[in-house]
Write a sequence for this structure.
């Protein structure tokens, strides 16, 4: 007997909605599983699955996989139907990868590169790395179904162009998607780096947490927001720019100039570049954020004092965000997140002291589980979501059965 019909979305569910069930079940589902989850009739489920199989979106579970516990008649998402190319571009380095359609990295490369070198220099490096990872994964450019890049600056998500970035010299309104269109016939997604990190963290580590805040403390300070399970970019893509909130610090007579041109921003005190600046002024031999992290971890008194001050400043800015946004999880990544508890203790203290009790009673403040791969993995998830929209899935199914 067929399972009873369920109210809501599953009555007459589309092929895209059926496919979403399989995306959330990496070990696969049988037809009976789909009927039980949806309440749809056997005939309807057969029709939907036949279309998804014809379009190559689903495939039968491999015979050898069944011997490990999968029953006969089980289907899984065809993760090898194509590949994705993603590049996580930071202030001083970038990571490029090729991923399958489950968002799993198949090959990856990382290099040092200054984003201030400009778009043509950096995107040329990205192109070269894309060629390398495709070759390493034994895939061809024609198999690429989507390209995703994230950058350390504000992005107009609709156009994929960076807008007035404080540290990305020469990138303002550069046509990043256009750079790739002559070589790849696929959509190109561009987003702020912390948005991609936040999405990866939420989808892969906290899927049951709809409201999450991602704080990246590296060369700069950035924040990404996940609201109701989706990236919250705001009206123009500028949401979550905590690093450029201006603050007053009691023991500072003249606030430092930030890279954005304003004075006294959170980042001008607590960003990695600012801590390197202050350490050098104190006579310490440091040149990079990694140098500063090593000095903090070694227990250097000046470095620890600066880290603790940065933690208090960051905690104050995050406390305001917690009162406004009320996330369940704050995940912290970036180089400075690896300074043991020097940073975390100060952030937690200020956030719990200054935020409303209702906003903090279930709040978790944790180190990012995915860092430093959160950007790459988040981009892959964003691309897969775009490829598997209900409308796009229906187009593929209609084309296969026509």
């Amino acid at each position: 007997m067929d399972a009873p019909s369920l109210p809501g979305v599953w009555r007459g569910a589309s092929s895209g909605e059926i496919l979403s069930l399989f995306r959330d079940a990496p070990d696969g589902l049988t037809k009976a599983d789909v009927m039980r989850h949806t309440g749809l009739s056997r005939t309807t489920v057969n029709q939907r699955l036949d279309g998804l199989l014809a379009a190559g979106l689903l495939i039968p579970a491999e015979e050898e996989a069944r011997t490990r516990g999968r029953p006969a008649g089980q289907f899984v998402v065809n993760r090898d139907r194509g590949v994705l190319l993603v590049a996580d571009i930071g202030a001083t380095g970038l990571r490029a990868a090729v991923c399958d359609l489950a968002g799993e990295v198949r090959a990856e490369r990382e290099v040092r590169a200054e984003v201030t070198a400009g778009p043509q220099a950096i995107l040329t490096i990205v192109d070269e790395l894309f060629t390398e990872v495709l070759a390493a994964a034994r895939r061809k450019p024609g198999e690429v179904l989507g390209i995703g890049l994230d950058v350390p600056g504000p992005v107009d998500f609709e156009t994929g162009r960076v807008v007035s970035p404080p540290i990305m010299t020469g990138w303002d309104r550069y046509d990043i998607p256009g750079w790739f269109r002559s070589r790849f016939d696929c959509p190109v997604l561009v987003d702020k780096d912390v948005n991609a990190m936040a999405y990866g963290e939420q989808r892969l580590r906290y899927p049951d947490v709809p409201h999450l805040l991602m704080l990246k403390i590296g060369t700069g300070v950035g924040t990404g927001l996940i609201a109701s399970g989706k990236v919250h970019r705001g009206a123009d893509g500028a949401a979550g720019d905590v690093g450029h909130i201006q603050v007053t610090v009691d023991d500072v007579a003249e606030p430092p100039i930030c890279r954005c041109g304003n004075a006294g921003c959170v980042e001008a005190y607590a960003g990695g570049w600012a801590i390197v600046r202050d350490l050098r002024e104190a006579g310490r031999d440091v040149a990079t954020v990694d140098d500063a992290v090593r000095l903090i971890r070694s227990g250097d008194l000046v470095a620890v004092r600066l880290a603790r001050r940065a933690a208090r400043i960051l905690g104050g800015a995050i406390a305001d965000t917690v009162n406004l946004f009320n996330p369940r999880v704050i995940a912290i990544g970036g180089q400075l997140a690896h300074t043991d508890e020097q940073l975390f203790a100060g952030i937690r203290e200020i956030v719990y002291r200054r935020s409303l009790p209702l906003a903090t009673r279930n709040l978790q403040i944790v180190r990012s589980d995915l860092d430093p791969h959160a950007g790459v993995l988040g981009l892959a998830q964003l691309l897969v979501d775009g490829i598997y929209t209900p409308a796009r899935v229906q187009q593929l199914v209609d084309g296969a059965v026509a």
User: Anything to note?
Assistant: Confidence is low (pLDDT under 50) at residues 1-9, 63-68. The longest strand covers residues 105-112.
